[in-house]
Design a protein that fits this description.
GTPase activity; SRP54_GTPase_dom; hydrolase; alpha/beta; binds guanosine-5'-diphosphate; binds magnesium ion
Length: about 450
C-alpha cells in the first residue's frame, strides 16, 4: 500500500548526512509512483510533487545537518496540508437546533454514520440529537434508522414513507424545537448514481431546513469515484464537509488525499467500522503520520484518555513527548491497555506498526501479554529505566526469571527501542493547532 511504498523511500534517505538534487529527484519519482498507485488524483500528485521538490532542494533542507529527516518533515507537512492542514470543526448554531443533512450515494454509509455521529455528539459533547428518517425510497430504510436509534437509545423522527422528505424535515425541526433537541440529523435518500431527481430533492430539503452542515458521506473503498462523487455533490448542493467511511477496509487511501484539494471541502470524520462507536474525527496531521508509518501515538493516547484514567494518560503523553518513557510506564500502560479494547487494533496505531510484517493479521492473545509482563517484571529498577544496560548476560537472566526465551526478551527490547526512536522523530514534528469551536 501507500504507507509501505513511502516508507521504503524514506528508509533510503532517513540517515543521510548529505543529500543531492539527484537524491531528491529519485525520491520524488518514488513518491509520485506511490501516490498514483494509491489512486490519488493525478493533478493532485503533480502539484504535490512539485511543492515538495521545491522545498526539498531549498536552503531549509540542503543546509540542514539532517537533510534526510528534513525531507521527511517536508513530505509530512505537505501531506498534512493536502488533507486540509488544521483539524476542522463542526458547526454549533447560535439558534438551536443545529441542523445537519447527511447526503451521499446509496450504500455509502449515511444511515450508519447518522447513528454514529449522534452517538458521538451525545457521548463527547453531551448533546441531545434527534435523528430524522427522510429516506422514503429504499425499502426498510426507515426501519434501519429506527433500529439504530433503539440500539443507541436515541429518538428517531419518522412519518412513514408516504409523506415527502421535505415535509418530514419540516415537521422534525418543529418537533426538535418543542422538545429542545440541540441537533437534528437528517438521513436522506441516496441513489446508485447521481441523478437530477436526487439532487432536486436534496436541494428542496436544503432550502426548507437551511442546514448548518451538509455532510457528504463517501465510501473510501471507491477511490477516485469517491472524489468524483464529492465534486458533483459539491457543485450541485454545496457541501460543508465529507465523511469518509470504510477506512477500516482494504482501501488504497487515495480518496483521503485527493478529496480536499479537489473539492476544497474538508474531511471531517472517518468511519472505521460498522459499530456505532467506529467514527473518528479526522486529523490531517495524524493521518499523514499514519501514512508515513510514524504511527498514530496521539490517537492512541486519546483512546487511552477516553477509556482509562485521564491523569495517567496525560502523564503518559508528557513522558512520550519528553522521551522519559520507561519499561515501568510500559507495564502500567499494558495493564490499562487491556481494558481498552482489541489489542491488535491498538497495536496498529503504535509507531512503526506499519512496518511490522503481518501485523494486520496478528491476533494478540493474552498469553503474549502475560509473557511481556513477566519479562518486564523480571527486570531490575535500573534496567527498566535504562534498558541500554541490558547486556547479554542480563538478557539471559531476565529470560530465565520470566520463564520466557532470550528471543522473546530481545524482541521486546527491540520493539521498545524502535518505539522510542519513532517517538523522538515525531516529537520534533508536532504542530500547534489553534483551538476554537467544537472539536472532536
Ligand atoms: P446508506 O445507504 O448510505 O445509508 O448506507 P448504510 O448506512 O446503510 O451502510 C451501508 C453498509 O456499509 C452497511 O452494511 C454498513 O454497516 C456499512 N458501513 C458503513 N460505514 C462503515 C464503515 O466505516 N466501515 C465498514 N466496514 N462498514 C461500514
Ligand atoms: Mg440509508
Amino acid at each position: 500500500g501507500l504507507a509501505d511504498r513511502l516508507q521504503g523511500t524514506i528508509q533510503k534517505i532517513r540517515g543521510k548526512g548529505k543529500i543531492s538534487e539527484a537524491d531528491v529527484k529519485e525520491m520524488m519519482r518514488e513518491v509520485r509512483l506511490a501516490l498514483l498507485e494509491a489512486d490519488v488524483n493525478f493533478k493532485v500528485v503533480k502539484q504535490f510533487v512539485k511543492k515538495v521538490s521545491e522545498r526539498a532542494v531549498g536552503q531549509e533542507v540542503m543546509k540542514s545537518l539532517t537533510p534526510g529527516q528534513q525531507v521527511i518533515k517536508v513530505v509530512k507537512e505537505e501531506l498534512t496540508e493536502l488533507m486540509g492542514g488544521e483539524q476542522s470543526q463542526i458547526a454549533v448554531s447560535k439558534r438551536p437546533p443545529t441542523i445537519i443533512m447527511m447526503v451521499g450515494l446509496q450504500g455509502a454509509g449515511k444511515t450508519t454514520t447518522t447513528g454514529k455521529l449522534a452517538n458521538l455528539l451525545r457521548k463527547k459533547h453531551n448533546r441531545k440529537p434527534l435523528l430524522v428518517a427522510a429516506d422514503i425510497y429504499r425499502p426498510a430504510a426507515i426501519k434501519q434508522l429506527e433500529t439504530v436509534g433503539k440500539q443507541l437509545d436515541l429518538p428517531v423522527f419518522s412519518l412513514g414513507d408516504q409523506v415527502s422528505p421535505v415535509e418530514i424535515a419540516k415537521q422534525a425541526i418543529e418537533k426538535a424545537k418543542e422538545e429542545h433537541h440541540d441537533y437534528v440529523l437528517i438521513d436522506t435518500a441516496g441513489r446508485l448514481h447521481i441523478d437530477e431527481n436526487l439532487m432536486g430533492e436534496l436541494k428542496d430539503i436544503k432550502e426548507l431546513s437551511n442546514p448548518d452542515e451538509i455532510f457528504l458521506v463517501v465510501d473510501a473503498m471507491t477511490g477516485q469515484d469517491a472524489v468524483n462523487v464529492a465534486e458533483s455533490f459539491n457543485e450541485a448542493l454545496g457541501i460543508s464537509g465529507v465523511v469518509l467511511t470504510k477506512l477500516d477496509g482494504d482501501t488504497r487511501g487515495g480518496a483521503a488525499l485527493s478529496i480536499r484539494s479537489v473539492t476544497e471541502k474538508p474531511i471531517k470524520f472517518v468511519g472505521m467500522g460498522e459499530k456505532m462507536d467506529a467514527l473518528e474525527a479526522f486529523h490531517p496531521e495524524r493521518m499523514a503520520s499514519r501514512i508515513l508509518g510514524m504511527g498514530d501515538v496521539l490517537s492512541l493516547i486519546e483512546k487511552a484518555q477516553a477509556n482509562v484514567d485521564e491523569e495517567k494518560a496525560k502523564e503518559l503523553e508528557q513522558k512520550m513527548r519528553t522521551m522519559s518513557f520507561t519499561f515501568d510506564d510500559f507495564l502500567e500502560q499494558l495493564g490499562q491497555v487491556k481494558q481498552m479494547g482489541p489489542l491488535d487494533e491498538l497495536l496498529k496505531m503504535m509507531p512503526g506498526a506499519n512496518k511490522m510484517k503481518g501485523l494486520d493479521k496478528l491476533q494478540v492473545d493474552d498469553k503474549q501479554i502475560v509473557h511481556v509482563e513477566a519479562i518486564i517484571q523480571s527486570m531490575s529498577k535500573k534496567e527498566k529505566t535504562n534498558p541500554e544496560v541490558i547486556n547479554a548476560s542480563r538478557r539471559k537472566r531476565i529470560a530465565k526469571g520470566s520463564g520466557t526465551s532470550i528471543q522473546e526478551v530481545n524482541r521486546l527490547l527491540k520493539q521498545f527501542e524502535d518505539m522510542k526512536k519513532m517517538m523522538k522523530q515525531m516529537s520534533g514534528m508536532q504542530g500547534k493547532g489553534k483551538k476554537k469551536g467544537m472539536k472532536f
